[in-house]
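In response to the reviewer comment on reproducibility (Comment 2.3), we provide here a single inverse folding case reported in full, input and output, so that an independent group could reproduce the run without further information from us. The structure tokens appear first.
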């Protein structure tokens, strides 16, 4: 495989048949969530790393490879990389504490769609190497994209009463880090307020684990000033 061809580039799309060299779903979305009841007070937690189409058809809703479906993955990861599991319990927890099931769903639905992680693509594949690589990549990206300091530098901090303008939130990250993110909000229980839910960062990929930032592709669902509550 060529070493310097980015997924979704003209060259990659022209040779898209070789999905061991070029990600079929070449935009990978690092999806970080803000849940006031989950994870460290000074960091978003992970929802997942989601392969998505460069253009056109998106990956199947329930994953891309039934033969690699897993209900649980913790024991696999623990045997291969116990330090990875320790990080995941901090930075990738499930809101209901059913961490293993949560991770299994993320692998089955999203991880199996990373085509360069197909077992046939490894030079000397060892069992479950694809699973370990997927979660390792996600945690590495998450740790290197902590947006709390950039937001704080512009006076945007978690607060139970203040409202944050969506443009100000995105601009704080863009100005400080030159990263274009997409933000998502949910409705409060009474439907009167929007509450920050997720920040999504988009990447193109070289081979299995070399990620390069690209512009956000989706539409922001935060339509008005929103709550960014304290944890």
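Designed residues, in position order:
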């Amino acid at each position: 495989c060529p070493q310097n061809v980015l997924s979704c580039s003209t060259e990659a799309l022209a040779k898209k048949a070789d999905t061991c060299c070029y990600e079929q779903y070449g935009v990978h979305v690092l999806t970080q969530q803000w849940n006031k009841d989950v994870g460290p007070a000074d960091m978003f937690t992970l929802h997942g790393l989601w392969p998505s189409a460069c253009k056109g058809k998106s990956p199947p809703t329930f994953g891309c490879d039934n033969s690699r479906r897993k209900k649980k993955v913790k024991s696999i990861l623990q045997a291969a990389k116990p330090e990875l599991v320790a990080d995941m319990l901090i930075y990738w927890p499930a809101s209901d504490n059913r961490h293993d099931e949560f991770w299994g769903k993320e692998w089955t639905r999203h991880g199996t769609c990373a085509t360069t992680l197909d077992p046939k693509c490894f030079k000397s594949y060892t069992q479950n190497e694809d699973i370990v690589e997927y979660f390792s990549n996600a945690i590495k990206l998450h740790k290197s994209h902590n947006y709390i300091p950039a937001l704080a530098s512009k006076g945007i901090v978690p607060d139970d009463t203040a409202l944050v303008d969506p443009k100000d939130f995105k601009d704080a990250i863009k100005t400080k880090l030159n990263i274009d993110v997409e933000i998502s909000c949910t409705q409060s229980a009474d439907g009167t307020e929007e509450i920050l839910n997720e920040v999504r960062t988009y990447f193109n990929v070289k081979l299995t684990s070399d990620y390069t930032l690209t512009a956000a592709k989706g539409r922001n669902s935060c339509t008005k000033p929103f709550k960014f509550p304290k944890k």
